[in-house]
Amino acid sequence: MSAPAASGASQPVDQEIGAGLRRLRRARGLSLVDVAARTNLSIGFLSQIERGLSSPTLRVLVGMADAFGVGLADLFPNGTPPQDQPATIVRGADRSELQLWRSGIRKHLLTPLSESSKLNLYMVELEPGANTGDEPYTHQGEEAGLVMQGAMLLKVESESWTLLEGDSFRFLSSRPHCFANAAERETRVLWVTSL
Questions:
Q1: Distance between CA atoms of 24 and 20, rounded to whole angstroms?
Q2: What are phi and psi of 17, to 5 degrees?
Q3: pLDDT at 163
Q4: Residue 113 DSSP label
Q5: Residue 7: per-residue pLDDT
Q6: Angle separating helix axes 32-39 and 58-68, nearest 10 degrees
Q7: How is residue 80 annotated by DSSP?
Q8: What is the DSSP letter of 55?
Q9: Which of the listed residues 4, 23, 124, 153 has the most CB atoms within 10 Å of its CB?
Q10: Do residues 152 and 162 make contact, with C-beta atoms less than 8 angstroms apart?
Q11: What pLDDT is recorded for position 177?
Q12: Which domains occur in the chain, in start order?
């Protein structure tokens, strides 16, 4: 996988994500060399991500989550599952958000964090022009969704569809896929993933 170019200015969201990735890598007892081998990313790029100097794409984050043996929800800022009792609800004001500002994608985690859960629900917001990149990616699990507003271009393997408001989808995450906003306004997708 190629890495996006690093910008000179560090963004707070990149620093927060990078610090969380570093904590998770260290908690797993992995070196940058180990993660590079598992993700096919360069050690330098991984180091830049951890220091908040580069913005990871959704494809890169999904690959890192697989390398750490966790779901994407575990990479969200403040993504620490409760230790005493699993939560049942998430208040709107308390949602975790993963902002991939360079790609124009924001993911809001709608389900409570839980170490034992294999199911997560997200509200994915795509700014005009937002996309996951031209190169499809894969990861563990299955995903499904419903376009709530706007339009989304979804590519899975060699097929592609433009999904409009009310259209839905489901596919195995191990199939190469990517997506983009197909509207000139914000697109919102209710997205479910399972591991």
A1: 6
A2: -65, -45
A3: 98
A4: P
A5: 42
A6: 110
A7: -
A8: P
A9: 124
A10: yes
A11: 95
A12: 12-75 (1.10.260.40), 92-194 (2.60.120.10)
**pLDDT the model gives residue 71:** 75
Q: Compute the distance between CA of residue 102 and CA of residue 99 in angstroms, rounded to an integer.
A: 9
d(CA 168, CA 182) in angstroms, rounded, equals 15
Helix (H, G, I), strand (E, B) or coil at 142: strand
SS3 at position 61: helix
Weakly modelled stretches of the chain, pLDDT under 70: 1-10, 77-86, 101, 115-116
- Of residues 123, 111, 61, the one with CA closest to residue 87: 111
Task: Give residue 30's pLDDT.
Answer: 86
Chain centre to alpha carbon of residue 162: 21
Cα separation, 67 vs 80, in Å, equals 18
Task: Kindly give the residue spans of alpha helices, DSSP state H, lying in 79-180.
Answer: none
Q: Which of 96, 116, 114, 115 has the alpha carbon at shortest distance from 106?
A: 96
pLDDT of residue 85: 52
Amino acid at 29: G
In this structure, what token pair is assigned to residue 189?
Answer: 């997708």
Inter-CA distances, 132 with 15, 58, 106, 126, Å: 20, 6, 11, 10
pLDDT of residue 86: 64
* Tokens encoding 29: 């007892």
